[in-house]
Design a protein that fits this description.
Blueprint (H helix, E strand, L loop, with lengths): L9 E5 L5 H15 L44 E4 L12 E5 L2 H15 L7 H5 L6 H11 L8 E5 H6 L2 H10 L6 H10 L2 H11 L31 H12 L2 H9 L16
Parallel strand pairs: 1-2, 1-3, 3-4
Length: about 280
């Protein structure tokens, strides 16, 4: 293996459970075709092509930048993915910031940490109030990025626009990361990363988790529902109102969500005063 580049050429940043696995798999398939790597991409070996930097305490050793496997491929950029809040490493290189409705991220991360990673025991309302995994962590992450949304090296993409019609926003991601590909190649990569295909691949290869999670449990899969609105079936109104009130109390986080139409809305109807 060739020496790994000193730092990534580009970053894809996101809060956990904002579509990173989907985009990593689609991008890995695109890069495999574009650079003629000849690899059968799965949800385990994709980390050798697009590694993580989530900090030393939260990055599995086999998923780190030091394990980038293609340093000898001319023209192939080292694209790294990170869940870290905004800091100086994201100042220079091109950055894609992937953002999702925080209610959806919260519910998805609950299932991930409880059923997939096995690192949380408790209810969803308890999870929401956890200082690290829950709403406080979401707010801290969003607030760190809000002042940098218009930085010249940052392109913001929402999970919701990807689900609504993936070709155009995926093309923006690819261009921002410095990869040249036509619409036909983008379409093939997205087709390879369809929900059904990714679930089938994950059941075969896993995603490099050290724990033996149950791949026959739909709630434990990394590719769980892939639905922008399914969180409403899981999140009770009290927890949703706690989330909304907490977000609105921090102008930077709330402003960012309102800007992209991602602020959750409660389904509870307040009776009018004249009734």
């Amino acid at each position: 293996m060739e020496p790994v580049k000193a730092s990534p050429d580009a970053w894809l940043c996101s809060y956990p459970k904002s579509g990173r696995t989907w985009m990593r798999f689609a991008l890995s398939n695109l890069m495999n075709e574009t650079f003629d790597l000849g690899v059968e991409i799965d949800t385990a070996n994709m980390f050798g092509l697009i590694p993580n930097d989530d900090g030393p305490d939260h990055t599995r050793p086999w998923k780190t930048i030091t394990n980038f496997a293609y340093g000898d491929r001319e023209g192939l950029p080292l694209v790294a993915m990170s869940h870290l809040p905004r800091d100086g490493r994201f100042t220079g290189p091109p950055v894609v910031l992937l953002v999702r409705n925080p209610a959806a991220s919260l519910v998805s991360r609950f299932f991930h940490m409880s059923r997939h990673a096995g690192q949380f025991e408790g209810s969803l309302p308890e999870f929401a109030r956890d200082e690290f995994y829950g709403v406080p962590g979401i707010i801290s992450y969003l607030a760190s990025w809000e002042p940098h949304l218009d930085d010249p090296n940052v392109e913001v993409i929402t999970y919701e626009e990807l689900r609504a019609g993936p070709l155009e926003p995926f093309g923006r991601i690819v261009r921002q990361l410095g990869i040249r590909a036509d619409d036909a190649a983008l379409g093939r990569a997205l087709e390879a990363a369809s929900v059904d295909r990714m679930r089938a691949v994950e059941k075969r290869s896993g995603v490099g988790q050290p724990n033996g999670y149950d791949r026959n449990d739909p709630g434990a899969l990394r590719v769980r529902k892939a639905d922008a609105t399914a969180w409403r079936d899981e999140l009770d109104e009290d927890t949703l109102e706690y989330l909304i009130d907490s977000l609105e109390a921090v102008p930077a986080a709330a402003g960012m969500l309102h800007r992209y139409g991602l602020m959750p809305e409660t389904a509870r109807i307040t009776p009018s005063a004249d009734r």
